[in-house]
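User: Predict the full complex structure for these chains.
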Amino acid sequence: MKTNVSSTRRDFLHKLGVSAAATAVAGTQPLTAHAAVRKRNIQYAMLIDTRRCTGCHACSVACKAEYDVPLGVNRSWVEYVEKGDYPNVTRNFLPRLCNHCDHPDCVSVCPTGATYKREEDGVVVIDEDVCIGCGYCIQACPYDMRFLNPVTGTAEKCDFCEHLVSKGIQPACVETCIGSARIFGDINDPTSEIAQMIATNPVSVLRPDKGTEPNVYYIAADHSGEHERQRNRYVRVTTHRKQKIRR
Amino acid sequence: MTTRRDFLKLGGVTATATMTGGVALSQARELKSGGADYSPESGTQRKPVPTACWQCVSRCSVIGYVENDRLVKIGGQPESIRSKGKLCAKAQAGVNHVYDPDRILYPMKRVGKRGEGKWKRISWDEALTEVSSRLKKLRDDGHPEKFMFHYGRMKASSSKLIKDVFLSTYGTGTIGNHTSICEGGKWTAQELTWGSHYDNWDFDNTRYIINFGSNCLETHTNHVSVAHRLVDALVANRVKMVTFDVRLSNTAAKSSEWVPIKAGTDGAVALAMCHVIINEELYKGDGEAFLEYCKVTADRNASTAEKVAALKLHLAGYTPQWAESLSGVSASNIEKIARELATTKPACVVSYRGTVAHYNGNDAERAMQMLAAITGNIDNPGGRCRAVGASWNYPKGPKNKPGSKKLKIVDGFKGQAAIPTHHVSHQVLKMIKDGSAGRPDVYMWYCYQPVYSNGDVQENIDILKDENLIPYTVAVSPFYDESSALADIILPDATYLERWDCEDMVSPAQIAEYYLRQPTVKPLGEVRDFGDVCCDLAERMGFPLGYKTKEEYVRETCENTPGVREAGGFEYMRQHGVWHDPSAKPSFYSHKKEIKQAALEKDGVIFDQATGVYWNWKKTGASSAAEAMDKGFVKTSKAFKGYVGQLINGKVYRGFPPDAVNKSGYFELYSELMEAKGFPPLPTYTPIPEHQEMQAGDLVLTTYKVNVHTHSRTQNCKWLTEIYHQNPGWINPQTAANLGISDGDLIKVKSKVGELETKALVTPAIVPGQIAISFHCGHWEYGRYASGNRPPENTDDTDLEAKWWTENGAHPNWIIPNDPDPINGQQRWMDTVVQVTRA
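Assistant: Here is the predicted structure of the two-chain assembly.
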């Protein structure tokens, strides 16, 4: 399910950060269509250092409280991956949230434009006034991050706590994290903590083969899946939510 | 959820910024961590109320956020030097307690038979008239001790107001706690060694951690404050941590090395490490220097060389090979870890219930103390430190207190526990049934679940139900739990988010933190904080306490406490929630402080030749200096209260002051108090009797707690129970194969006192020969989220329709007997022998 982000991608990101700052100062406009996506001055992103994650679920519950998320659905959760043979057993933790992709499949399938990637900071958001609850985005997301809110009937997911970030406060999951495993910030600012951590550590993203270019990065993530059982190895993935199978 | 309006607003801001230069947009704004919260719906700021958590005994400082008079969110307190703004899942879910649709909001009186589930609402006046008339009669008849008060968690100002002011003015000393089902055994072992209880692990400064049976990354008495420091140690400081556990807890999983160990053998491995350290002379240096403060032989004047010789002799048989044969930990690994521990400075020796809740737990903990002592890792930066917490100056209430009378039912049966300094609460109901030490007429419990929280659940139910054994039962609880269901009257308590307290939990910064709990919202329904109720009851019985409410008591405490008072007292604490002395330095090595001559010459201070202790007989139970001199320090009642200092090699030091027993000011590896009770004075390994008689196929049941629940109190929190509501039995694949059990099978687990059914979780994350079943689950009351059962009164909650789980797990306490550690009375949660079969 996972591979490390190649050094070329990291370099690319790094250069982008530099070029974004330079662009702002110079006031010039990038020219190519692809770069037009990239010219975004701010791209909010999250880095999760799984070495610091203790699997405590504080993030999951903080998120439930922040948005009063109904039972049965989640914007944020933590999966456990336990594997090995006695006594050489490991258990690793994989916190999950919306990847706020550069090329989000949820946006391209949305028939009403309710889901879109914000120009000002790259956060993928849902306008609940426009969402018709068709569920296409839920099918399209390769990460299973979306759900229909059973109360409002519209699609919902993590929005990086934009109501807090816009007021100068960290997202709720970042604030509570006991191990300080989560770093949130502008990946396009080369001086930001997140950009520097990504520049100096091997990082990975979920399902890079999908070409969505996620903006949630992991340090030392264990991407093992239950499919490895087919190779006769013990692997147990626990999702800690209603949906027991991980996509 | 984001509205169109918000987008436009944000867009407007962007446009303005662009016009005024645009450069600002090239950088995201600096984000602060917590301290404020806004509604995702309206964008309006939520009102912050600094207060304190109560989900577990850690009692972190938190901030409640209130919107339209409703508590909607709990965040961390960034100003706290303990938790530093971090919070666990349980703390976040505190909101669920307040708005639990199955809360008890009005006083309730049973109308059917006890336990039949038939109730009627009554007024507070009716409830308190009934309770106070019963209590007053007992008091007027000269039998206040027949009022038994049994609490689970009662701390700081609640404890002072309820116990030291209300109950002591009333005159009952028949007061039970629940420490023996927590970790009371650890505390007794520590009191015997270094006088006081509670060890803080200084992860900020350590270089090496050895952990026996603590799951401090998931659940601990100082959980968040310790856990965030431990993660920093492991990741930022690259500290090596070795964890011994029967099970791969998340703490073991995050450790550098998980060492699987057979249940009840931690003490054997620790003693074998001591053997290696002494024999290879790895104690030299810090360990040797610390031995000056240790008592190792009967002779308090023994030289360090004599102390080393005595240790060598005592430890001679505790070889790594011997420990391997018991524990399954290889001798070579024991040697390797012992050497690492002794040569990496400073190092921290960690232990908890996995070590302590056994037949031999007392000496396993004393062995941990020995391991830390001989490596010089006691009360040093980076080591195992004496706890530091707030010292509030509490008002004492009415001057004329009658002197308490008590029934001797809180320390277990005669001969059951030799030194139960934290009592033997799990025997209370058995003792009431027995009756030979008397029975209470009124049994009231507070923040406690006598039915569910102890072992022998069926027996607890049978006794509590029997009106001949206990004529009148009163539950003080916000919830209709398994014990409330067996009350005659329920006094609906405020949740911790609706009440006042001064708080004081241990600070891992080694600097005391003072903090406040205040109501985040007005109490729901007619619930009342029990502190307020005590003030009311006292008034009704004719002995007013001098306070109408706990708020008054807390206010006066804030105004009377040095430091807090100067900072601004009660109003400062209301606004800020936390205070610490900014000029305070972390406390280490307090045993090295020399006692001034003037203190030794104070009126009443005498010297005890036998122990080398200076003590003030006037603060003890002695009636004259002559009597005190004659009896001596050890045999004088409450002598420890008069402790002044310890003579060591010609100087008088503060040493390790006794706090509960009459030990000397030495760090007592050699305990004459133990010896006097017929136990070996030096830490000794004793096999667990039941484990020596196991039949082929028998397993040892171990219990544990998970990161989203406290023992019995959180299954009503929907956000937590959604994550964890089933507790399968963990079984090693090899063991499962021998028993013909596959992953997911329904299994029967049977002990000498009962049987339960759960599913098998076949996993390599547990030692062969064990089965691990967590606490928390298997409620049959406690509301719909916990058990599916509707209490007699309830309200509505839209989430109830979305509750998607129907199974609620199994409670292991049905099959665990209430059996104490023979030294300290600790409940033996980890010793039960069981037979496991496919159901």
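Chain B has five domains: 1-31, 108-180+392-425+433-495+523-549, 199-386, 590-665, 692-838.
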